[in-house]
Design brief:
The complex is a heterodimer of chains A (663) and B (318).
Chain A: E1 10-13, H1 19-35, H2 42-62, H3 68-86, H4 92-109, H5 113-129, H6 137-157, H7 166-190, H8 221-224, E2 229-235, E3 246-252, E4 254-255, E5 260-261, H9 263-267, E6 275-277, E7 282-288, E8 295-296, E9 298-299, E10 309-311, E11 317-319, E12 327-333, E13 337-339, H10 346-351, H11 361-374, H12 378-391, E14 395-397, H13 407-415, E15 417-418, H14 420-433, E16 438-445, E17 448-450, E18 455-459, E19 463-471, E20 475-479, E21 487-489, H15 509-527, H16 531-535, H17 548-572, H18 581-595, H19 606-616, H20 621-636, H21 643-654, E22 659-662
Parallel strand pairs in A: 1-22, 14-15, 14-21
Antiparallel strand pairs in A: 2-7, 2-18, 3-9, 3-16, 4-5, 6-13, 7-12, 8-11, 10-11, 16-19, 17-18, 19-20
Chain B: H1 2-9, H2 16-31, H3 36-47, E1 52-55, H4 62-73, E2 77-81, H5 89-92, E3 93-98, E4 103-108, E5 115-119, H6 126-138, E6 140-143, E7 146-149, E8 155-160, H7 173-176, E9 181-183, H8 190-198, H9 202-208, H10 215-226, H11 232-247, E10 251-253, H12 257-273, H13 281-292, E11 297-298, H14 304-314
Parallel strand pairs in B: 1-8, 1-9, 2-5, 5-8
Antiparallel strand pairs in B: 3-4, 6-7, 10-11
Helix pairs in contact in B: 2-4, 3-12, 4-9, 10-12, 11-12, 12-13, 13-14
The chains are: A alpha+beta (663), B alpha/beta (318).
């Protein structure tokens, strides 16, 4: 940096980064990297943290700078590493990884106060970006606390404070953060929100768990071990009995020999099949967590369509947009129903019987045998199939062996080991081969009933697949072939397997389930506070819907009220009154000097203070000395200072303008 | 720049005793190298009319300081080496029967001097200590019912070893209060120590010293110190310090009114040595630990000087 001469009357502040701010800066950056640990590769964050620690050690211990070539290498290495991992520098994870890396590079070159200030601004932004990944209450609190080192660093960067301790650095930030909470609340409630987000969190979709649009045995394996919350369901009345807690997601019509797909039938804009209801419908509200897909889950079987959703011919609900943020909707379902009992439309019947040619000859032969034995009685054929799963030596196991080209044959006659997908897939295949219209349904089953807060918590591990067969006179009937299997092997890796009735293995799952009450409240009340909720804010005051202008006015009123209260409190605070005009003038001078970072110590004598000021402002030293001599004489050499001389002093003080220059 | 500043704040108070005072200070500084502050403190005590307690380990120059002061100030000097078998009469003197006149005749003790060095005062028994301390407080001694005034000025320099050393009788708090200032000499720094090692013998140096002041000068300077302006703002500060010592949670017994008077007197004398005719808060701060350190009675086991320093830093200045 080129040194320039400061203009006269200015205070040049040492630009070198002191020990305490540097320590705090490193701590801040470690916190920021730490906040991104959950969604970035662990080796990446660990490397970044190690670089920060080494940098800290070398600068503090040996006063070493990082050579420019090394910084350039780092600058190139960060994007390269990110592209190597994510395939592209774009997207949420890749973006977070790049900015974390760049922040660490910034710390490597931070030698001056200015660098540190920039780093802190950058660090705060990156810290907030961690909330794009996780908006849960504990994580939000954690991120809020991680702001403290950043605020402490800024405080320690103030001139004259770099040598004070940690607590003097942390205290103002902590107090400020606590004091800003009411303001944050007001802003949260009143700053007008956009009905749709200006920008959505981009999601690569890679490696995301969630029910996919395609079911090939083995796909759901990862879901079974995923304890993340899928949705929460609050019922208006009593919850349905446990054996009816099937949440319909999508219906798979088409089998290509390997995988089940929604197929053409699900996409046609045909009206939903008629449903006969046999008990009072269940009313409930679903809070669906982001799945990045269109499927909306509803208790089997939904009979009305929420806003922004469309119901397919097979009574599945699809949203118009992918569900990228927590989505709440109300639905009505019938749990005891007859779906399409009158007669299956020919086009649907054809779709529900279609099988690819040239696959699984042994299963086809078995189905043909059953058809011959029962004379085509569909109910009997179903019973045959369930008996096979019950008595045929089948094992329920999350760790299913791989299957060959004829996957149904291999499963039915060789491995006989699998989970819900295998059973639903094989069962449906057998039904179709035997001439019974059948389809696969994918969704969730079971869930944890939170008795305290009265809602059903459904996790990804509750994902399930079952079958539906169409029986004459009864319509589509749900058959869960997995339930027929008698032998169960629970995988070591698994959490609660929804397939087998939600038996919990982990000791902490009950606690997690109970703690979910808080998460639910947070998710619904705070994270889910959108434009619609905001417009309802003033309903208790008789205003049905608020406009953005109205919110703006309310915000302005709140801000003015807050400022007024603050000013009132400040004026009520007892303050030492200046003894006389001389003391008042001296206090004004102290304030002028404090603004350029020369702060008088609590017990610092006036002469010591002026001496220090003269040292820090060499250009102004003669003026400062003259002012000091005048003040000390007036204050301490007279029992009663002459008013005329006080006036002269005050006038001279008015023309004293110290300034500060930060290099 | 410091000189500019001092000149700007200085008042014109130059006169003969003032110049002699500077010469006296310079002479003592020559003998005790690197002890400027302690020597200035000793002069402060002298000009404020108090008595000085020097507390430190043996061998750092306590006695040399007293000797150099005695010669330089031009006062009559006596020295008492306190031991455990010293009696009060060894200090104040005794009446002996004079066979020639057939009457008792008072034989004055060493206390009848203008500058008295009470060496290792805490080696004597409390009874003997109190004989001296009474003399210090009253400015007179009473023997056989007759009061005898001590010469003026009367300046006691007592030395004592740190209290944790063997064979010492600690001075009670009430007696400590009679010393205006308590100072420590401390080890010399490296430069001063080198000058000490390479320079000539200190005893010989003291032997060659000549008086720079006399009793009349000292009394005049004392009067001038007393006339130093203490403005209402300064008195406020002194009062705030005294009040804070009585409210401080680590202090069982705060500063007495006598301590407040001593603080003000010492601050005035310090200002006089700084060539100013008014006292600044800095003068109070300079002498505060020496005045208050031995007078504060801590509530817990705390270093008294550190406590006094903490107290000083807790009170705001105008």
């Amino acid at each position: 940096m080129k040194r320039r001469h400061a203009p006269p009357g200015t205070r040049v502040i040492a630009s070198t980064l002191g020990a305490l701010p540097f320590d705090l800066l490193c701590l801040t950056v470690l916190c920021v990297v730490g906040a991104h640990v959950p969604h970035l590769p662990i080796w990446y964050t660990a490397t970044l943290a190690a670089i920060v620690v080494v940098r800290w050690w070398r600068r503090r211990k040996y006063h070493r700078r990082v050579p420019a070539w090394l910084r350039i290498v780092m600058l190139v290495a960060v994007p390269l590493a990110v592209v190597a991992v994510y395939g592209s520098p774009f997207g949420r994870e890749a973006g977070a990884a790049i900015v974390c890396g760049l922040l660490v590079v910034k710390v490597l070159e931070s030698e001056s106060v200015r660098d540190a200030r920039m780093s802190i601004g950058f660090a705060c932004f990156i810290l907030m970006s961690a909330l794009l990944f996780d908006q849960s209450l504990p994580f939000t609190i954690l991120v809020g606390l991680m702001l403290l080192p950043a605020l402490a660093t800024l405080r320690a960067l103030e001139p004259g404070l770099s040598r004070s301790g940690w607590w003097p650095a942390f205290k103002p930030g902590t107090v400020t953060l606590a004091a800003s909470l009411p303001a944050a609340l007001v802003g949260f409630l009143l700053i007008p929100r956009l009905a749709t987000p200006l920008w959505g969190a981009p999601d690569s979709g890679q490696g995301r768990t969630g029910i996919s649009d395609r079911m090939a045995p083995g796909d759901i394996h990862s879901l079974l071990t995923d304890n993340a919350v899928a949705m929460r369901v609050g019922f208006d009345g009593a919850p349905p009995p446990e054996d009816r807690r099937y949440f319909r997601g999508m219906v798979l019509w088409e089998f290509d020999g390997r995988a089940w797909l929604p197929g053409a039938a699900a996409r046609r804009p045909w009206p939903p099949a008629p449903v006969g209801i046999r008990d009072p419908p269940t009313h409930y509200e679903v809070t669906l967590l982001p799945s990045h897909r269109h499927w909306m889950f509803a208790l089997d079987v939904p009979i009305d369509t929420p806003e922004e959703a469309r119901m397919g011919p097979d009574h599945t609900l699809r949203s118009a947009q992918p569900i990228t943020h927590t989505f709440r909707y109300r639905v009505e379902s019938a749990t005891d129903y007859r779906m399409d009992p009158e007669g299956l439309a020919p086009r649907l019947r054809a779709a529900a019987l279609e099988l690819p040619e040239g696959f699984d000859p042994r299963a086809r032969a078995l189905a043909a045998r059953w058809r011959a034995q029962t004379g085509g009685n569909a109910a009997e054929i179903v019973r045959h199939a369930l008996n096979l799963f019950h008595d045929g030596g089948f094992v329920y196991d999350l760790d299913a062996p791989p299957l060959g080209r004829d996957s149904i044959d291999d499963f039915l006659f060789d491995t006989r080991t699998g989970f819900c997908e295998h059973y639903a897939s094989a069962f449906t295949f057998l039904m179709r081969a035997a001439g019974v219209p059948a389809r696969v349904v994918v969704g969730y089953q079971g869930g944890y009933w939170n008795d305290f807060a009265h809602y059903l918590l459904v996790r990804q591990s509750d994902a399930h697949a079952w079958a539906e067969v169409w029986l004459a006179g009864r319509g589509w009937v749900r058959v869960d072939p997995t339930a027929a299997v008698s032998r169960v092997m629970l995988a070591d890796t698994g959490g609660a397997a929804g397939d087998v009735g939600g038996g919990s293995i982990s000791w902490w799952m009950p606690w997690r389930n109970r703690m979910d009450v808080v998460n639910r409240w947070w998710g619904q009340t705070v994270v889910g506070f959108d434009a619609l909720e905001q417009s309802r804010l003033f309903r208790p005051f008789g205003i049905a819907r608020t406009s953005a202008q109205m919110l703006g006015v309310a915000l302005a009123v709140a801000v003015f009220l807050a400022l007024g209260v603050g000013a009132l409190l400040a004026s009520l605070r007892p303050r030492a009154k200046p003894r006389d005009a001389l003391s008042a003038a001296q206090l004004r001078l102290q304030r002028k000097l404090a603004r350029i970072g020369i702060v008088r110590g609590h017990a610092e004598g006036p002469r010591d203070f002026y001496l220090r000021t003269a040292t820090e402002l060499p250009d102004l030293a003669p003026t400062v000395n003259k002012l000091a001599a005048e003040y000390l004489a007036l204050r301490y050499a007279f029992p009663e200072p002459p008013p005329e001389r006080i006036r002269v002093f005050v006038r001279r003080l008015r023309n004293f303008h110290p300034r500060r220059v930060v290099k | 720049m410091d000189q500019n500043f001092a000149a700007a704040t200085a008042a014109s108070a130059d006169s003969r005793p003032r110049q002699r005072l500077d010469a006296a200070l310079a002479q003592v500084n020559d003998v005790l190298v690197g002890k400027n502050r302690a020597i200035r403190m000793a002069f402060t005590c002298l000009l404020a009319g108090g008595h000085l307690l020097v507390e430190d380990v043996p061998g750092v120059g306590k006695t040399t300081l007293a000797h150099a002061l005695a010669v330089t100030l031009g006062l009559s000097f006596r020295r008492i080496q306190f031991t455990s078998d010293l009696l009060p009469s060894d200090i104040v003197g005794v009446s002996v029967f004079d066979r020639d006149s057939g009457a008792f005749r008072f034989q004055p003790g060493p206390v009848f001097a203008q500058l008295l060095l009470a060496d290792e005062i805490n080696r004597a028994t409390p009874k003997t200590q109190s004989a001296l301390l009474e003399a210090m407080a009253e400015g007179q001694v009473t023997v056989d019912g007759a009061s005898r005034s001590l010469p003026q000025p009367f300046f006691v320099v007592a030395t004592q070893n740190p209290l944790d050393m063997a064979g010492t009788y600690p001075l009670p708090d009430s007696q400590l209060d009679r010393f205006m200032l308590r100072i420590a000499l401390d080890y010399p720094d490296a430069e001063a120590e080198r000058r000490l090692l390479t320079g000539e013998d200190r005893a010989a140096m003291v032997g060659r010293l000549s008086p720079r002041l006399d009793a009349a000068d000292i009394l005049a300077l004392r009067q001038r110190a007393h006339a130093i302006v203490a403005s209402p703002a300064l008195l406020d500060y002194v009062q705030a310090l005294v009040a804070a010592s009585r409210k401080h949670h680590d202090i069982r017994t705060g500063l007495s009114p006598r301590a407040g008077l001593a603080l003000l007197a010492a601050a005035r004398a310090w200002a006089l040595l700084g060539d100013r005719d008014y006292a600044l808060p800095e003068d109070v701060q300079a002498v505060f630990v020496a005045v208050a350190g031995h007078r504060l009675i801590p509530a817990r086991t705390l270093a008294r000087d550190a406590l006094a320093q903490a107290l000083l830093e807790s009170v705001a200045v105008e």
